[in-house]
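Hi all, long-time lurker, first post. I run a small reading group and we've been trying to get comfortable going from sequence to structure in the token notation. Rather than ask abstract questions, I figured I'd post a concrete chain and ask someone more experienced to write out its structure so we can walk through it together at our next meeting. Sequence below, copied exactly:
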Amino acid sequence: MTPSVRRVVSGVAWLLLALWAAWWTVALVRLELPLGDRTWFVQPFFGADFWSQPDYAARMWASGGDPYSIHTHLFHYPPIVIRLFLWTPLFTGPTALRIWIVVLVAWLVLATVVVVRERRALGESSLPLPVALVLVLYSFPVLFQLERANFDLITLAAMLGALPLLNERGTRWERAAEFAGGALLAIGPWVKVYPGFLGVGLLALRRHRALAGFVVAGAAVFAAAPSETIHSFERLRDAIERTKQSAKFIPYGTWSHSLSMGIRTLVRTTENEGLGHLARKVPAEALALVLMLVPLVWVSLRVYRAPHRERLTFAYLLWIVALASFLPQIANDYSLAFLPLAAVGCMGRGEHWSTWALLAIGSVALQPFALPVSGLVLLLPKVCSVLAVGQSIARRAREGPPPVPA
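-- Answer (accepted) --
Happy to help. Here is the structure in token form:
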């Protein structure tokens, strides 16, 4: 990219970022996202995942109640989520919601800065920061994450905090820092289940002390409130059962990417007897796990053998979390907010044509505005997008370290 073209592209990107900021300023004032009904989630429900789950539970717990005792309103997350949101009772509900969304935006911007920096460390051509921010902030998973004010990005915050600890080298505090980095990542699986696959990533990165910290800290979180944690598992089971029952009558959503639920829906609607027979023999959850394990093992082995794996740490861990989000029976697309960050951090020159083909298919689902496509059909582009980024990481792992400038 010539300097003149780079200036023009950056100028357009800055304009788009200004429009994005104005868009979300209006949304925060009105507590409603303009044009939200034109997106893939179709029915905007501004801040619903915030005030119906962590905010609700934190306020009840702070007043002496038990959020897990209410069966009509299922709060089904571990007790650490309640503790992390005990600041919300200090504010009114709308104010707390606005604060939380601003915090989410700050984490996303910081993560984008980090992946752009690590992209340079891989020897890839420099991507202007405003362009990278446009690619991340305008993606559907990120918009959905902010509109619902979900809390998946607590895992992203933990990764941002752990990254400098995992990259610590050559000091006497190296072992303690690496262990602490793994312990920090252990917050993720106790906020949402699927980030537990970060343990596989630490193993592939040969961060054995970090993996030990991940396991030890995870066990400590459970031991801190075992009865509440067990209650949260019971409520999660109830939520999954309700989702299964409703899925029999509600079409597979354009905002969902649960692979097991997608397989179950496909089997229920197909007339193919062979597929139906296979589904009766193999549970949808097991089939989804096998389908996701194939790219996970392939990419992880590449990373394990890479001579410069530390330069892939952030993009690889982001990709693993995005991939793992396909496995839960309840998987909404805001969990894919990690994927655009991973793509910005690793994709560029030298990609195989098949990688770009997969990404082109995946872009149908990653762009925000709804098209006349069913949710079940959209599941394929979402799988293609995560495979494209995985293939790019595998290529990076196979390459030698970039040349050192003279």
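A couple of things your group might point at:
Residues 93-121 form the longest helix (29 residues).
Residues 44-398 form one domain.
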